[in-house]
Design a protein that fits this description.
Keywords: Signal. This protein is mainly alpha-helical. It is built from 15 helices and two strands.
Length: about 350
C-alpha cells in the first residue's frame, strides 16, 4: 500500500505548509500531502463561487476525489477555509449533485475509467497550476481512484457509470460500498518518516520519471538529492522509486539492491569533500532546477539535520565535511534510515 489512508490523514494533522486562503492551515487542517491534491484544494478554495454548490466547481470535485478523509470531512475543511472555523452544516447528502458539465469533462460521454479519471484529474490540476506537472505522483492518482471504483462496486469492469459516480459524492460519507479497495494500487512502501517533508517527495517523484532511475540513480541529480534527503533511508527510497517507475514505464522491475548499483557520479559541489553548505545548496538548487511548483523545506533546519545524520553515518562529525567516496558508500551501504545525528549537534 502506497500511503495508507490513515497515514495520509496523519499527514494532514502534521502538515506544515502554510496557506494563503482565508483561514490558516492550523485551524482548518493542513494542505494535502500530495502536490497535485494540494494544488487542487487551493484552486478549489480560490475559485469556488458558491459554498453551497461545490460540485459545480471542477477543482473542488477533483480535490474531493483526492482527499483522504470522507466527503463530509472534506466539506467541513472546505467550509472552514472559506467561511472560517465554526459549526458547519454542509453535508454531502444535502448538496446539488455533480453537474453534467463537470461529469462530461471527466467521462467524455461514457463511463469513468481510470484513464479517463487520470487525464481529467491531472488536466484540472495543470489548468490550476502548470508548475505541478513534474510533481504529479502517479501512484497517488491510482490511490485516489481505487477506493471510488470499489465503493461504486465496479472493480470487475473498471468503469463507473454516471449516476453511481454522482452517488459517491452524495452518499459515500454515510453509506458503505461493496468493497473498500479494488487492488489497483501498486505495493509501494509506506513512507513513514518522510511524510512530514513534502520536498522529499517533490524530489522523489521526478526521479521516478527518469529512464535510468533504477539502473543508475546516483548519476542523476534529482535522484541523488531525493536519496540523500530521504529520511526513511536508501532502501525505502529505492522501493518508492521502483514502485512508481513500474507504473510510469509499464514495467515490473524488482527493487534494485543499493549495493549492486553504480557508485555516486553526481558532483554535489565543485570540489569534494562536501560541506553542509554544499549539501544545502545542492538540495535547494536541485529543487529549483525542476522549475516546478515544489514545496520548499519549511525550514533549512531539516536539511541541516539530514546532513548531520550523513556525517554521523559516514564518520565525519569531526570535520563536518564528507568526501565523495564516503557519500557514495552511504548511498550504497547505509540501507535503512540513519537515525542518529552528530553528538555535537542539537
Ligand atoms: C446552514 O446554517 C445557516 C446558518 O445557521 C442557515 O442559514 C442555513 O439555512 C443552513 N443550511 C442548511 C442546508 O441547513
Ligand atoms: C456503463 O456501465 C454500465 C454498467 O457496467 C454498462 O451497462 C454500460 O453499458 C456502460 N456504458 C458504456 C457507454 O460503456
Ligand atoms: C511482477 O513480478 C512479480 C514477482 O516478481 C510477480 O508475482 C507478478 O505477477 C509480476 N506482475 C506482472 C504484471 O508481470
Ligand atoms: C572513507 O572512504 C574511504 C575509501 O572507501 C575509506 O578508506 C575511509 O575509511 C572512509 N572514511 C571513514 C571516516 O569512514
Amino acid at each position: 500500500m502506497l500511503v495508507s489512508r490513515s497515514m495520509k490523514l496523519a499527514c494532514v494533522l502534521v502538515g506544515l505548509a502554510t496557506f494563503s486562503a482565508a483561514q490558516s492551515s492550523s485551524l482548518c487542517g493542513g494542505l494535502p500531502f500530495d502536490a497535485t491534491c494540494s494544488t487542487l484544494l487551493t484552486a478549489c478554495v480560490n475559485t469556488l463561487a458558491d459554498i453551497n454548490n461545490p460540485w459545480a466547481n471542477e477543482a473542488c470535485v477533483a480535490a474531493a476525489t483526492c482527499h483522504s478523509a470522507p466527503i463530509n470531512a472534506f466539506l467541513a475543511g472546505l467550509s472552514c477555509r472559506i467561511q472560517g472555523p465554526g459549526p458547519n452544516n454542509l453535508t454531502a447528502v444535502n448538496l446539488p449533485r455533480v453537474s453534467d458539465a463537470v461529469y462530461n469533462n471527466v467521462a467524455g460521454g461514457g463511463n469513468i475509467t481510470y484513464d479517463a479519471y487520470k487525464n481529467w484529474f491531472t488536466g484540472v490540476a495543470l489548468k490550476a497550476d502548470p508548475g505541478v506537472q513534474k510533481l504529479i505522483d502517479i501512484a497517488e492518482v491510482i490511490a485516489n481512484f481505487d477506493p471510488i471504483l470499489a465503493w461504486t462496486g465496479f472493480c470487475s469492469t473498471g468503469a463507473i457509470p454516471k449516476q453511481t459516480f454522482l452517488d459517491w459524492f452524495q452518499y459515500s460519507s454515510t453509506v458503505g460500498g461493496p468493497a473498500t479497495a479494488c487492488g489497483l494500487i501498486p505495493p509501494c512502501l509506506l513512507h513513514q518518516y518522510s511524510v512530514a517533508f513534502p520536498y522529499t517527495i517533490d524530489l522523489l517523484v521526478p526521479c521516478a520519471n527518469e529512464q535510468s532511475a533504477l539502473s543508475d540513480p546516483f548519476s542523476i541529480n534529482v535522484c541523488v538529492a531525493a536519496a540523500l534527503n530521504d529520511i526513511d533511508g536508501v532502501d525505502a527510497f529505492l522501493d518508492a522509486v521502483t514502485c512508481r517507475y513500474n507504473v510510469i514505464f509499464g514495467t515490473n522491475n524488482s527493487v534494485p539492491a543499493s549495493n549492486t548499483l553504480p557508485p555516486l557520479s553526481v558532483n554535489i559541489a565543485q570540489t569534494s569533500p562536501y560541506s553542509q553548505q554544499n549539501f544545502i545548496d545542492f538540495t535547494y538548487g536541485t529543487l529549483s532546477s525542476l522549475q516546478a511548483s515544489v514545496r520548499w523545506p519549511t525550514s533549512v533546519d531539516s536539511v541541516i539535520t539530514q546532513w548531520s545524520y550523513i556525517l554521523e553515518w559516514t564518520n565525519f562529525c569531526s570535520t563536518g565535511t564528507v568526501p565523495e567516496k564516503n557519500l557514495s558508500d552511504l548511498l550504497l551501504y547505509s540501507h535503512v534510515l540513519l537515525g542518529q545525528t552528530c553528538p555535537n549537534s542539537s
